[in-house]
Design the sequence.
């Protein structure tokens, strides 16, 4: 090769490299995944995105969604949109989409056939407004789990419960052994979620659908619902009144350390058991649907892409959306996070016992119910939070009063 | 300058009041719904609890920070040794934000290793002091933390006021044989009126906007027992995307302040007019 040829080759190579770097776009991604397992999951996405030649600029916001969402939404409304952002799919971004602030992903979704890939289909429906798709669902989380500490039951010398009813019956024995039966964090959303789980477990899927989805007054105010409220009222006794734990993971920690018998919390709690080095069926156990009704809601996280003027950025946003739905990213991300992937055609051999239980329940579409975030606007959800946390902490509030207030909120929900 | 001030203080306030009559969600929209937001506001047990709480917090904060702050300042004024050191110690908490104050007191009041446990370890095993887990008393945890943070500052203001009193007055009162406490009560305090008013305004504005302390210390709990109006506004405006409801709440806060402020300003103003005539 002559010098001239070499130079030409070098120029070509350089040009190619430069052309490549023109495509590399920085995208800032905001999210509130800051715990150990969550950070590992985010890294999977970031690595996959960077592999494609772009640059993932991490914009983690500490605190839970309640802290992060207002910041994210203010930024979008304030005209300083990020490249992409986590939100829970459902109604949180409804108004932002209506105002035309979010990027329309329909074209990409049709090209890659998301509608057929994503299971359950309600996830895509939650991302859809007027027939157009505005977000990428990335995982499935469900609230309907009860986590029990097998160590605590060993200490109390009784068998671990298989259902909620067993658990309630075992509570006095746990108390005798100096163990709090039920660990509950003080944040309002936890009480609200716990009520949803108990309602589903004791009332069954049909009642949940007619009350929560169809908002049928007969179902909301009926006798069956009154029974559930009175059971929930009794459950207040299972909590430790001196308890001032705030965060859900602090409450989970009480179960991990066998100070408490059980906690009702979504499957994100599983990550805490994993980090503590515990194994399902050995130190702890999981009861989906309180061990009574095998049903799960399919809330979860989704990514939205605020609309931007720059075409380069738009192209990069599309690349990121496509990456998040890809098989590799789905498997890596969800194994790290302890959540279930949104597509059914991926291999999850590495999943643990509880995740497999969850997957088995999701096989039957009848077992899938819409989650609170999909049913309620943030406003309604907030009112329910206020009511339930007040009820849980104020033992002078009667079940009938709370039941009535609760039904009214749902009947008047927007 | 005046235009800017008018725009910010009057214009924006009027804008807030106007949109409190709409059904605005996360974006302001002119869909008027009359008094519906106010109906809902006063039906909300959380809002009523918030109003009750701010009354308790406000009363305690006002009385104790003025009272304790003034007494501390008087103590400082007795030409004591190490005055600078004490002043620094008392003023130090004021250098901390409410968030830090809240976290500090969360540890101090923690049932497992805070005050309660320390006193139990000494031997009083049945000692109960668990404000944070108590529905009735959680509001007093906020009062204690707020006073701890703010009293030093009140003391500093009062001390400055005391130092501005002419020494001749003290000499005269000593010659007349008036006891020190009477001199303070009937001569010094009336002379310090401007200082008291400044302090009052500072404390009162701190009370109305108390938010970060609640978030850091109790999160409004247990239940809704330590909720505050400013937190209600913030939660509805940002967290729950209901601008109309949030603005209705902030309008009620504004009018409450005005109801207290206008008669007072009126009195103050007319008194001065009387002075000039005399």
Sequence:
């Amino acid at each position: 090769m002559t010098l001239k040829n070499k130079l030409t080759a070098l120029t070509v190579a350089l040009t190619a490299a430069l052309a490549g770097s023109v495509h590399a776009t920085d995208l800032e991604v905001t999210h509130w995944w800051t715990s150990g397992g969550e950070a590992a999951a985010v890294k999977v996405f970031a690595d996959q995105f960077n592999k494609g030649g772009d640059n993932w600029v991490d914009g983690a916001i500490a605190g839970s969604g309640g802290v992060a969402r207002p910041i994210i939404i203010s930024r979008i409304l304030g005209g300083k949109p990020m490249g992409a952002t986590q939100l829970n799919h459902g109604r949180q971004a409804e108004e932002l989409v209506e105002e035309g602030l979010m990027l329309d992903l329909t074209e990409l979704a049709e090209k890659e056939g998301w509608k057929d890939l994503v299971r359950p289909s309600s996830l895509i429906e939650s991302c859809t407004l007027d027939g157009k798709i505005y977000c990428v669902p990335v995982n499935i989380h469900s609230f309907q789990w009860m986590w029990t500490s097998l160590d605590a039951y060993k200490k109390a010398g009784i068998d671990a419960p298989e259902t909620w009813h067993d658990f309630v019956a075992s509570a006095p024995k746990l108390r005798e052994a100096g163990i709090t039966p039920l660990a509950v964090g003080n944040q309002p959303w936890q009480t609200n979620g716990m009520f949803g789980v108990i309602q589903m477990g004791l009332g069954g899927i049909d009642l949940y659908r007619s009350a929560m989805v169809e908002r049928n007054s007969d179902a909301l105010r009926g006798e069956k619902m009154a029974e559930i409220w009175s059971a929930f009222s009794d459950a207040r006794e299972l909590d430790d009144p001196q308890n001032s734990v705030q965060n859900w993971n602090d409450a989970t920690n009480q179960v991990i350390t066998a100070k408490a018998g059980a906690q009702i919390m979504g499957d994100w709690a599983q990550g805490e058991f994993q980090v503590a080095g515990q194994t399902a069926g050995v130190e702890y156990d999981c009861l989906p649907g309180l061990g009574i009704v095998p049903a799960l809601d399919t809330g979860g996280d989704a990514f939205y892409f605020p609309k931007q003027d720059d075409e380069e950025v738009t192209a990069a946003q599309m690349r990121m959306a496509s990456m998040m739905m890809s098989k590799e990213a789905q498997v890596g991300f969800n194994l790290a996070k302890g959540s279930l992937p949104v597509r059914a055609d991926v291999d999850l051999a590495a999943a643990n016992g509880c995740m497999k239980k969850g997957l088995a329940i999701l096989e039957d579409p009848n077992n899938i119910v819409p989650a609170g975030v999909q049913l309620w606007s943030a406003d309604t959800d907030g009112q329910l939070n206020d009511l339930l946390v007040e009820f849980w902490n104020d033992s002078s509030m009667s079940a009938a009063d709370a039941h009535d207030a609760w039904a009214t909120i749902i009947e008047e929900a927007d | 300058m005046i235009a800017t001030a008018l725009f910010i203080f009057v214009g924006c306030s009027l804008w807030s009041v106007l949109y409190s009559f709409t059904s605005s969600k996360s974006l302001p929209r002119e869909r008027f719904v009359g008094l519906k937001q106010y109906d809902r506001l006063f039906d909300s047990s959380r809002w009523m609890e918030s109003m009750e709480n701010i009354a308790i917090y406000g009363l305690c904060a006002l009385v104790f920070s003025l009272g304790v702050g003034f007494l501390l300042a008087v103590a400082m004024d007795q030409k004591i040794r190490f005055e600078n050191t004490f002043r620094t110690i008392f003023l130090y908490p004021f250098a901390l934000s409410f968030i830090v104050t809240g976290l500090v007191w969360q540890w101090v009041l923690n049932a497992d290793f805070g005050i309660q446990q320390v006193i139990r370890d000494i031997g009083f095993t049945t000692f109960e002091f668990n404000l944070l887990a108590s529905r009735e008393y959680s509001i007093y945890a906020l009062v204690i933390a707020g006073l701890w943070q703010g009293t030093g500052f009140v003391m500093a203001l009062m001390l400055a006021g005391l130092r501005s009193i002419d020494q001749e007055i003290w000499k005269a009162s000593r010659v007349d044989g008036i006891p020190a406490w009477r001199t303070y009560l009937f001569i010094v305090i009336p002379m310090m009126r401007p200082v008291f008013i400044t302090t009052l305004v500072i404390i009162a504005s701190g009370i109305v906007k108390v938010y970060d302390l609640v978030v850091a210390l109790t999160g409004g709990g247990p239940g809704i027992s330590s909720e505050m109006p400013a937190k209600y506004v913030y939660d509805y405006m940002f967290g729950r995307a209901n601008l109309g409801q949030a603005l209705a709440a902030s309008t009620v806060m504004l009018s409450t302040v005005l109801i207290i402020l206008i008669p007072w300003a009126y009195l103050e103003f007319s008194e001065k007019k009387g002075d000039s005539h005399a």
